Amino acid sequence: MNIGIIDADLLDNKARFPNLALMKISSYWKNKGHHTELIEWDKCYNYDKIFVSKVFDYTKTPQEYLNMSNVYYGGTGFFFDKAKPLPNKVEHIKPDYKLYSAIDKKLKYYHDTSIGFTTRGCFRQCKFCVNRNYTKVEAWSPIEEFYDQSHKRIVLLDDNILGYDKRIDILNTLIDINKPFEFKQGMDIRLMSPDVAKRLSSSKYSGDFIFAFDDWDERIPIVKGLTIWNKFKNNKNTKLYLLVGYKNNNVKDVVEAFKRIRILMYFRCIPYIMRYSGWDNGEMRGMYINLGRWCNQPNFFKKLSFREFIEKHPKKSSTQKYANEFESKYPDIADEFFDLKFGEVDELYL
Cβ distance 111 to 103 under 8 Å? Predict the structure, then answer.
């Protein structure tokens, strides 16, 4: 058979990372002697079977093609936490790393990268997370199941690697392979330990170390984890995702975002603003935009306070408009946070 593979996120320009499920599906059918290739929507009529996947729910997928009898689709972008897992015979197979061979070589994750899960699941059950139905972290695939020795790097997609009781064994295996690796989904800083910190900081880790600070109420365990991490990180770049607009969409949420940013400044870490669905429906829309513009550009964040960043923009710009409106309405909050500057916060406020 001729089998078409559609990465809907890639076609809608949302993807900068290959779809692991599609690579496994392609490998499964190739091993059975069939031809597979990455295609676009308008080619659907030329194939015996079409497999479609997307990660993001906002990715556009033409319904006329999804309704075709030879089209099969799945993934979190379609079904979020109700997405069906791949059958074991497909899940535990080496991915077809040649599926994306025609993709621009500058997009590094599509080439020379081994991708997989060593563990699956998380016990946190955060309501905003696709993994909220799990109650534990469990072993999933040995590294050799998806590792290609010819590749330059390894990317792990584990949901919560530090929540696994044998995490040290996995880290030791990655270190012994002696190639750059990273945990793409980030790690749980609340579970940081000296043993983990020592291994991560001395390894060939690729890119920034990524954690998360999603909730102000979690500040105590997060500060504890950052305190351990700071003893070992050796000035390596550390970034934490900051979720905003989830619990509420009002001034309290913005204040708590600034408080989290101040803690990260103290630990010399970089925040990355993640705006929850519906963030743009309330009065804090403009401030969420400004916080993202400031924090998500490390070259600005490391050099400029929020006020200095705002003042670099033209007086009639939306950036200045949003900040001025907020300061006019909440002058005490602006006075407390607008002049905070990376590298100058030397007291920890909890």
Answer: yes
pLDDT at residue 184 above 90? Answer: yes
* Model pTM score: 0.91
pLDDT of residue 128: 80
Asked if 81 contacts 39 with a C-beta cutoff of 8 angstroms, the reply is no
**What CATH number matches the domain at 112-207, 3.30.750.24, 3.90.550.10, 3.30.750.210, 3.40.50.300?**
3.30.750.210
Q: Give the closest residue to 174 by CA, choosing from 159, 95, 166.
A: 166
Q: Which fold has domain 2-91?
A: Rossmann fold (3.40.50)
Burial label for 253, CB within 10 Å (0-12, 13-18, 19+), is buried
Question: To the nearest whole number, what is the mean pLDDT of the chain?
Answer: 95
pLDDT digits (tens, 9 = 90+) for 113-132: 999 999 999 989 888 888 88
Domain boundaries, the chain: 2-91, 112-207, 209-350
